[in-house]
Amino acid sequence: MTAEHGSQVDVVADVRLTGSDRLDPFGDDVVDVHLRDGRVIDIAPAGALPRAGVVLDGAGGWLIPGLWDHHVHTVQWALVAQRVPLGDATSAADAAARMGGAPALDDGRRVGTGFRDALWPDRPTRAMLDAVTADVPTYLINADVHSVWLNTAAFAREQLAATEDGMLREEPAFEISRRLNAVDPAVGDRFVTEALARAAALGIVGIVDLDMAWNAEAWTRRLAQGFDSTRIRFGVYPALLERAISEGLATGDALDPAGLVRMGPLKLITDGSLGTRTAACSHHYPGDPGNRGLLTIAPDILGELLTRATGAGLEVAVHAIGDLANTHALDAFAATGAQGTIEHAQLVAHADIARFARLGVGASVQPEHAVDDRDLTDTIWAEQTALPYPLRALADAGANLLFGSDAPVAPLDPWAAMAAAVFRTRGGRPAWRPDQALDAATALAASTSGGSVTGSTVNAGDVADLAVIDRDPLSADEPSLRATGTAATLLGGRLTHLS
């Protein structure tokens, strides 16, 4: 039987294997991979064993483990489809003008997303935005999501006191995002389903959902509607920690009999961001001697939260971007025995690199951020003495790297993340800090469920979360790696994408 979308596949035929940790004898020869009950049960030379049941023709493509994105703000990412893209806006005036000509959403608001203002020649002001948007509530979300630019009508709609520059930062900005993301569940769920179908077409089999909401309810609803395309681990934030504990949710607990959707970590945001100039650093930001960023959770409170989560069976995912925030996060892991990850780790003190592996703390990193932020890093972190975007240093020290996008901060595209990690560039520019580049096998492994320490090879006994792609990622150059095509994606042997 020929495989179709939704089929439970029994044989993936005529594929090639890749991975630096291979022990098989097949080399470049094509093989058949036999599946049963959602697992790989055998790998044999093509045609050596009967091809019984549903057969997926791999057509000589390469078989890899299914890919994960370990950091996604799912609803906010999905809703980007209906928001005005501002990633290439060259100035505040340019961004404001685009919003002035943008259509309003059904709720009467204009929403733009993805602007990067740190290197703009002019500064945002509320008056500038008011001049082109009039009385239509208008919201511009920074690419890093840590600040939002509003016009007067938007401040009035949200019943907030207007600021002179129209900017809200950190928690007030997060609250605006929460409100903008609180769309009709029927609408939001449709966008999420469509977005995750597009992710499956890139080889994605799982994501870590870090939406700032009660995600257990949202995913229970989606499961009831038939959602089945992606494995989900969902997080919870401190405001809802006690609810999660009272409902008996520990990390790894499943919401459904198949175990498709599971409880993930407690997410904690301990500092700001590079783009908003609020990441907590050892040295001040240029031209602003009083500004070393912002610790949004004091170290003693951080320790208390990690202790509470650990006692309840929850892992933790600690947002730490600046080197000071990373030091405090590692201190808290060491003091409490908590398990989990540091999210971002964009600026890490030399003395802290080895602590990731020593403490068993995963480095959940987003390689495309390094390419996006290279000019910003060289400008506003020029006087910092810690290591920016230290992928190779972390890998060499034995840390487990787990790749993600932080979508919508960067597009959810695992091939872009791998290309950024391996080649440290995009668009033909010279490689940025090439000493921190990774080998392709490590990058591929970091894009799977278990991270870089688990290897990148498909073996008998593995869960049949797989993807068939059109090139060997271990030998592709930068443009080719970014352009990798996915012929098929399998989740437990079931086809969630077939091109």
Which residue ranges are poorly predicted, with pLDDT under 50 across at least 5 consecutive positions?
none
First-last Cα distance: 17 Å
Oligomer: single chain
Work out the radius of gyration. 23 Å
Number of discrete helical segments? 16
The structure class reads: alpha/beta
On the 0 to 100 scale, the average pLDDT is 97
Strand content: 15-25%
How would you characterize the largest beta sheet? 8 strands, mixed
Characteristics:
globular, 499 residues, 30% helix, alpha/beta, eight-stranded mixed sheet
Question: What does this entry look like structurally?
Answer:
There is one protein chain. By secondary structure, the protein is of the alpha/beta class. 30% of the residues lie in helices and 22% in strands. The protein is built from 16 helices and 23 strands. The strands form four sheets. Strands 1, 2, 3, 4, 5, 21, 22 and 23 form an eight-stranded mixed sheet that branches. An eight-stranded parallel sheet has the order 6-12-13-14-15-16-18-20. Helix 2 packs parallel to helix 3, helix 9 (299-311) packs across helix 10 and helix 12 (367-380) packs across helix 14 (414-423). It is globular, with a radius of gyration of 23 Å. The two termini are 17 Å apart. The mean pLDDT is 97.
